[in-house]
Automatic annotation (TrEMBL):
Transmembrane segments: none
Keywords, sorted A to Z: Hydrolase, Protease
NCBIfam families: PRK00033.1-2 (NF000669), PRK00033.1-5 (NF000672)
Gene Ontology biological process terms, A to Z: protein catabolic process; proteolysis
Name of the molecule in the record: ATP-dependent Clp protease adapter protein ClpS
Family membership: Belongs to the ClpS family.
Length: 114
């Protein structure tokens, strides 16, 4: 409890609950985890339908929206396909890179801090 001037007294401790003011003035630290953008990069060889499948399978994106995102990557060179905490972003990147490699497509998936 922070004592207001009218509560302060050497002999009267009725208002003193014994806590430490520093503890009250410290911000409650409920920091959100940093977020990471997961991106797909364009290339000249990966089939469009494969990229759509990746977006559906690993990012839970519906066929229509997945097709739009794929075309954005195709035209602009890259697109953010999701934003996640570090470990989830890392897992998505690994899953996509592994899936692409198994199918011998050069598709690249990367992450960067938001
Ligand atoms: N550019 C590829 C093609 O013309 C399609 C493609 C789209 C590849 C998105 C990668 O992340 C990508 N077949």
């Amino acid at each position: 409890m922070t004592l207001l001037p009218h509560m302060m007294s050497d002999k009267d401790d009725r208002f003193d609950d014994g806590d430490v003011d520093l503890a009250l003035k410290t911000k409650p630290k409920t920091k959100r985890p940093p977020l990471y953008k997961v991106m797909l990069l364009n290339d000249d060889y990966t089939p469009m339908e494969f990229v759509v499948l990746v977006l559906e399978r690993f990012f839970g994106i519906g066929h229509g929206h997945a097709t739009e995102i794929m075309l954005t990557v195709h035209k602009k060179g890259l697109a953010v396909v999701g934003v996640f905490p570090f470990e989830i972003a890392e897992t998505k990147v690994q899953q996509v890179m592994d899936f692409a490699r198994r199918h011998q497509h050069p598709l690249q998936c990367t992450m960067e801090k938001e």
